[in-house]
Amino acid sequence: MRLVVIGGGFVKHFDNFHINKRIVELVGKVNPKVLFIPTASNDDEGYIKEFKDTFEKQLSCQVEVLRCINENPNESQIIELFRSSDLMYLGGGNYVNMMKPWKKYKIDHKLEEALNSGTLIAGISAGAICWFKSGIRSNYEGEGYIESSGWQIINKIFCPHYNQRDRAEALHSILLNGNRTEDTIALEDDSALYFTDNTTELIGDPSKSWLLQVKENKLVKQKINA
Prior knowledge:
Helix content: 25-40%
CATH architecture: 3-Layer(aba) Sandwich
Shape: globular
Strand content: 25-35%
Structural class: alpha/beta
Largest sheet: 7 strands, mixed
Protein name: Type 1 glutamine amidotransferase-like domain-containing protein
Radius of gyration: 17 Å
Mean pLDDT: 95
Order of helices and strands: EHEHEHEHHEHEEEHEEEEE
Strand order of the largest sheet: 3-2-4-5-1-10-11
Keywords: Glutamine amidotransferase, Hydrolase, Protease, Serine protease, Transferase
C-alpha cells in the first residue's frame, strides 16, 4: 500500500504545494504520469486547471483527467488511464456525489486494485475519506456534519479540515456520544500522512495532524508523531 491522505487546502497554495511536491517525489520517476480524478468537485474545470497548472508547469508531471460527471467514459478508456498512471490523485468536494459515479463506473474497485498493486494514490478531503472505516463530512441535505462509511482499507475514522471549529466540534460529539473505540485521524488543511504497509510519514506542518481516542468517556487528543 502506498497512500497519501490530505486534510484539505488549495493545490496552488504554498503549504499544499510542499505536500504535492513530496507526493511527486514519492513516485520515484522523472516526469511521472498523473491521473487526476475530480469527481467530488463535479469535474469543475477551474479546479482541473489549477491542478494542471501546479502538476504540469511546476512539478513536471504529465496529467490526464478522468471526468465521469461531464463525460461518459467507457470501460476500456478507464482501464487504460489506470494502467498508464504512476500516481492517482483524488480531488476534494462532495463525498456523496463522488461515490455514486465511482460505483457506476466501478472506479471504487479499480482504485482498490491499483492500491493493492502498489500504485501511489493521493486523496484530499473527500478523496481521502473513502479509504477509512468512516469519515466526517458536511451534511449536504441539511446543516452540520455527519459520519459516512468508507472502504475500511484503514480501520480508523478520518476527519479532514480539522481546523474548522464547527467540524471539529461535530467530530468530538460523534466520538463521545458513541463512546467510539476506533482511533481517529484528524488532519487540518495543508497537512498529510503517507501510509505504506509498514510505515507512516508525516508530510507538512506536524502541528496540524492529530490522533483522537475516547478513553473512559473522555476525549484524548495528541499530535501525530510519524
